[in-house]
Amino acid sequence: MESRVSIVRDSDIERRVLEAVRLLGGVERVVGKGDRVLIKPNMVGGFPPETGETTHPEVVKTLVELAYEAGAKEVLVGDGVPEVPVDTVRRRFVRRPVPPISGTLHGLYRKKIEKAGGKLIDLDRWTEVEVPNPVRYEKVRVARAILDCDVLIGAPTLKTHHLVGITVALKNLYGAIPPKDRRLYHDLDGVEEVIVDINQVRTSDMVVVDGTYTTLHWGMIDQYMERSRLDLTIAGYDPVAVDSVSAKLLGIDPKTLRFLSWAEERGLGKMDQRLIETVGVPVGDVHPEGVMTVIDYMNKRLSRIRLVSCGACTGCFGRVATSLFRRDDSQMRDDVYIVMGPDAKPIESAKKENVILCGNCAAPTFYNRLKGAFIPGCPPNLDILIERLKEMNLKV
Ligand code: SF4
Fold first, then answer.
1. Is the domain defined by 4-285 classed in CATH 3.40.50.11440?
2. 210 by DSSP, 3-state: which?
3. Domain ranges, ordered by start, for the chain
4. Which of 128, 279, 331, 390 is 20 to 30 A from residue 200's alpha carbon, by CA?
């Protein structure tokens, strides 16, 4: 698998997608004559594309045309999202006004895709498949359509995610499992693990990321989010490399994303930036406005708790930050420091009783000078952490 990733900036979506795919080496590298192609966009919640939550239909339409030009017999477009009336979307999207669209996101897609000869389908028929060398789940249920196609093209959006760090190439296939299972994996705290397990069953042959906007959401969708316009397309044949470059663009160190390390270990692609060739706009030239990590975001919102990540991975920083959403720390007696990660350093200015060392990486040892209460585990036990914070007057 080639780990080249192209990055193109242009306000004209069609021209941008065509250029990103051309720089990469073309759709014909994966689509052959007579192939059945499935394009999997991100249509989460049925939000209009201007929210940055969903893939712009123009991106998908361009990919449909490219697949036919490369000789595809049939091009389907599908996500596991029910058709939602715009009024419902408006009600859910309370903190940000939803730009007006008439009808539904599905309607917008149909109009564009059918004109290009494609067909919009629902991913609503499932099959259980064994996972080779699973991270956690030996079997997963996935949409039949992702197994039946000859070529799978992922068309996600460019977004951060409070729990797993980013939601781009690999996480896009979380939409190809039953909605009930998605809720279950959240409840089991197994989202990062199952992302890799799904991709082991079937991963994308090519990924074209819609970065018209980026949405930075830290918390549940439609609650804590910012959106900025980037006019980017990011494309690659290696989904791990695409995620690695996307993380970098979003100001997140790819090495801190647990699912990406697990995916690389299982041969799904390369995350090491030294092994990825990027073409087009240099990564350093993209400066998404308002980009911040979930740690920065939570430190802005919290009053007395300070999260200190010293090279921590999502197992610590994503889960700890998520566990503190909707908590009120304003009544806590003192500033409390939660220190995570393998490079944990002492907080000289804080009293020992106000420091919590979280996760095995930050364990106090004979060799380091770390002082504070210790929450063990890799990842750490969040129930113990929250109990400890409650004793210090955290309101739940
Ligand atoms: S303790 Fe485990 S989960 Fe936490 S930063 Fe270290 S490796 Fe990651």
1. yes
2. strand
3. 4-285, 294-391
4. 279
